[in-house]
Amino acid sequence: MRRIAALACKDLRLLQRDRVGFFFVFFFPLIYSVFFGAIFSGAGGGGMGAMKIALVDEDESDASQQFGRLLEESTEFDVTRSRRAEATDMVRRGDRSAYVVLPQGFQESVDRIFQAESIRIAIGVDPGRKAESAMIRGLLTQYAFRTLQDTLTDRLSMRRQAQSARARIEADDEIDPVTKTLLVRFMTEIDFLMAGLPGNEPAGVKNADGSGGDLAGLDGWNPVDIEVESVLKERIHPRSSYEITMPQAFVWLLLGCSAAFAVSLVMERTRGTLIRLKSAPITLAHILAGKALACFLATLGGLAVLFAIFRLAFSVRPDSYPLLLLALISAAVAFVGIMMLISVMGKTEASVGGIGWAFLLLMAMTGGGMIPLMFMPGWMKTVSDFSFVKWSVLAVEGAVWRGFSLAEMLAPCGILIGIGLVSFLVGVRVFKATAD
Amino acid sequence: MLKLNQIHKAFGSMKAVDGLTLEILEGEVFGLLGPNGAGKTTTVNIAVGLLAADEGTVEIGDGHSPLDAASRALIGVAPQALALYEELTGRENLAFFGRLQGLGGGALKSRVTSALDFVDLGDRAGDLVKKYSGGMKRRLNLACALIHDPPLILLDEPTAGVDPQSRNALYENIKALRAEGRTIIYTTHYMEEAQKLCDRVGIIDVGRLLALDSVEGLIDSHGGASALVVDGGDGEERIETDDPVAELTGLKSAGRLKSFRLDRPDLEQVFLNLTGRKLRD
Fold first, then answer.
1. Which ipTM score applies to this complex?
2. Considering the entire predicted model, what is its pTM?
3. Class of B2-89+146-219 per CATH?
4. Per-residue pLDDT tens for A184-241?
5. B97 at the A interface (CB within 8 A)?
6. Which terminal Cβ of chain A has fewer Cβ within 10 Å, N or C?
7. Are A29 and A224 in contact (CB under 8 A)?
8. B102 vs A281: CB contact, 8 Å cut-off?
9. Domain spans in chain B, listed from the N-terminal domain onward
10. What residues have CB less than 8 Å from B158, skipping those under 6 apart?
11. Contact yes or no for A140/A100 (Cβ under 8 A)
């Protein structure tokens, strides 16, 4: 194993030292996909603007409508009002990131703030979207605080709350008479105080920016009770154009790696180093395993770097990381096999490079490496079934935005691994037969 | 050290080696000569395990087959093509081939250093090989063959395309290896080189061994007679004779001797006598 590792390390170092090759293997795919990502932007999904949510107002009260208006006026949310069933469908289809329900009793919960009740809100979101869920909850809490603040600074609302509280205290037989008298008197005085204030002026001092002053002492008290409902998303559209072009970038990297390593295997022959490798106390299997390992590691490493760039720079977020890993490993296996096959397509570096790239470009053209699969006409999609590039793109898309389950991933990944193994074995056989 | 017994090898209908039997003794420098297409490369490739014979046996050391991967550790190969990675440094090339031979850690470091020193490349060890001159590459090629300290070394055209200084340095390296008691198989097209370095020489053609002996033995048996080149005043005349003294005495008494020189047969003459003067392209 140490010898195979030595062979692999040598190939990785050679690849890294070959600046032109390194550019075409690692940077060209990135440039290609960013370029087309920018061209396609708007065709795929919503980008990073306001979060699209559906608002379900089941209370239809003043308070719920006021809260709804706050959300509609916000810059963080793009709000569509709908009924709960429709909202659920929208989230499931991926048309909306989440729905927000203001349930029946919303007004009552707002009015009972003085009785330490929380404002009740429900949200529906895909359980896999933890970051989005947290973001929505944070924003809703912020807007609920604002509603509360408006309530506390609204004289009529305050009087209504004081009167409501006084009536509840009077009706409660379990409170002892002395306490009841004190509380009733306290609420009456608040009501009297609010009635005496002019207009709807603030009840307290605000901060310099005009927000929040009255709530300064409310630390630790959460006035909002947000219930999260799970809505499993049926993803059928990419969120952004970069979710379309990222698989293509992966494909170009795979193509580049397999072509580069195929040529490097031929170079071992033409430059005589294969003789020295064969004269070492290792078998031909070791030599080919070392080459395959280097190709696999370079491919997987390159894919990881590309993914990190897309994740950080373009906010591409796969539906499932484990399935994406499965897709990338399967694609890497397939292209290692293809590398081996290409390496025996000719005798010289020029012939292998030429024939190999012609073959790879044909596969890329028909398999969605140039035109995204989703934009292909029907007949071309049928033709693409014969291209290993298509299965690589499909596997990655399945994990990134098509929402494939593990069972659905098995088909493209299985085909890729199968292609990889068959190609590798055929390549090794031909290589062995011609190695002398 | 190495025995080839009744080796046959064909590529399609072409017989490359045809019943060749040969023994290379421990500690000798053995020269294998032959015209292009004679079967030299096939023979040495079979000898060091790079190629399997169709028939016959090869034994290395205590009866091991060179086809057995482990026994290949006994052999160091410096192929005719410069089997080096140009994008790696000299030191990296040596370290890589050393690792393939199973070396590691301090042993590898020490072997790399001594191999570099042996071929006088210590000060350029950190340079990429693509920046080396032809002679430096040849020396590094030799160093790579020595990295695991093998007792048997195959040097295939080790001085091809190098300048006289580098060639001379390589001669010195080879003499030093012989002095260390290593066995060397040496193939070359330069007869002068073989004559200077080899203890014994085998000449093969059409896959068969035509002659095998020391250089002097080959000259005696296949070099033909010595020749007198005489100038009697009307140009040079070449006279082949087994008794040059008697011939010169006769010429002098006849007044036909102004100057003369004696041409003794050499290895090249032996080679041409055995393999003919027909071009082999």
1. 0.80
2. 0.65
3. alpha beta
4. 877 787 777 666 655 444 443 333 344 444 444 444 556 678 888 887 766 566 778 8
5. yes
6. N
7. no
8. yes
9. 2-89+146-219, 226-264
10. B78, B138, B141, B142, B170, B174, B186, B188
11. yes
